[in-house]
Amino acid sequence: MLYGCDHGGRGRDVTEFGDYFRTQRWMNGPGNDQPGLASDVIKEGSQLHHASLRAPAHVAGGLLRQQVGHHVGADRRCHVAQLRAGQNLLTLHGLYYSTHGGWWEWAPPATTSTCRIGTMGDFLPAVERMSYLLSQGVHRADVAILYPVAAMEAAWAARCPLMRPSRWGAICM
Amino acid sequence: MRGWLWNSAFAAEFTRRKGYDVRPELASLFAETGPRARQGHMDYSDVMVSLEEKTTSPSL
Question: How many helices (H) and strands (E) would you count in chain A?
Answer without folding.
Answer: 4, 5
